[in-house]
Amino acid sequence: MDIRRLQAFAKVYDLRSFSKAGEEMLLSQPTISAHVMALEEELDTQLFDRLGRTILPTQAGNVLYRYCSAIFSQLDHARADILALSKRVAGELIIGGSTIPAQYIIPRLIARFLGNYPEVRIEVRGGDTSEIIAMVAAGTAHVGIVGAPASQAELVSKPILQDELVLIAPAALAVARAKTGDLKARLLGVPWVMREPGSGTQLALEQALTQAGIDMHELRVVLQVHSSVAILECVEAGLGVAAISRMAAANYLERGGIALLPSEGLAMRRDFFVIQHGRRYMFPAQRLFLRACGNGL
Question: pTM for the whole thing?
Answer without folding.
Answer: 0.60
